[in-house]
Design goal:
Layout lengths: L21 H8 L3 E5 H14 L5 E6 L6 H9 L3 E4 L2 H9 L7 E3 L6 H10 L2 E4 L2 H11 L5 E6 L21 E2 L3 H11 L3 E5 L9 H15 L7 E3 L17 H19 L4 E4 L3 H4 L3 E11 L5 E5 L8 H5 L5 E3 L7 E7 L7 E9 L6 E4 L20 E6 L2 E6 L4 H5 L8
Parallel strand pairs: 1-17, 2-3, 2-10, 3-4, 4-5, 5-6, 6-7, 6-8, 8-9, 9-10, 12-14
Antiparallel strand pairs: 1-11, 11-12, 11-16, 13-16, 14-15, 17-18
Amino acid sequence: MSFSTSVTEVMPTTLSPQGVDLEQVCQQFSTPLYLYDADIIIRQIEALKNAFTYPKTKFKYAAKALTNISILKLIRQQGIDLDVVSIQEGHIALKAGFTPKQIMYTPSGVPFAEIDEAIELGFQMNVDSLPLLRYIGERYGNTVPCCLRLNPDIRAGGHAKISVGHNESKFGIALSQLDLVVDVVKQYGITINGLHIHTGSDIKDPKVFAQGAQRLYAAAQHFPDLQFIDFGSGFKVAYKEGDIATDIPQLARLMEDSFQEFCQQYGRELEMWFEPGKFIVSDSGYLLTEVTVVKENPGIDFVHVDTGLNHLLRPMMYDAYHDIVNVSNPEGAQQPYHVVGYICETDNLAEGRMIAEVRPGDILAIKNAGAYGFSMASNYNSRLRPAEVLIHQGEAKLIRQRETMDDILQNQIELPL
């Protein structure tokens, strides 16, 4: 793994989202703890709305980033629809108050029984393979309008594991198979009401989206009944000072100009969809953790904390950078540390990181943990998953109970051996 090490003097700052004392929150709810700031979620949504002026623009929050039902309700209240990738996410969405028509269902090689359930529930189908398209045609004929997820053969994204739009990716139907798609559509009379693309995550250059759009526009000429084109997302967010994030206003201008030109050629105005996930929730989230041991080492001291890759997998899986702040000692002298988790694996949360002097018992805040933090958490090492708290209107409110040993054991069956 490779992490940036900075020796630049960092000005001390007190981290206090909406004026809430994070140490008091940890005393109330214990650690480790996922904490989300509702104001930041709303701010990110407003940034999207303000950037795009095309009246038929819709945003579908990619629920897999964070599926807590209270977060989904907050997002729904801001007028955002939903993209789900499993039937379970779909059921949570319905419980959060989304209507079936607001939900796009984008499976990847799931059992066809799940497809049947999604169709029965009334979700918008997003078809990512020829076998699935044939199955829908054979079973449902022309009664289920479908969106097609097309693979544009564009390699983009911040890491190989989140680059999903190239020709070696499992996702989507290759554009080179478009003739086969058209044959299946004609054979069963399937209505294709949308086209979808998603090239990856952490995409900085808006021109990548424009490149994918042109390939969808060319494919659109084969489908006369389109109602929308979905350009996915993958907007880059800033994880540290100096990071280049996706310029959303520039993206909006670029995409709106090309889309309106396409609509004129197509013959009518379609809806333009995007599926932001990380962009909406990443910056809102903190993983709060208590320092258990500061282990002196000849090279660099290790800071051990009461969390690990079981709660935040991204650093080990994606080499992801998450800024870390010492909440308890923000004015301490900056020192380099390796911050490591309590899992019995190589479990690095940060390497060579400059942090205000750390002492046992200090509370550290791992920032930008709102996306793919809790949603990728596990019970590895039989550890409990943490509680979740939402700061809403200046108050810290519990939105998920901390797991207990009963939760770990409840589905295990002890045989009388």
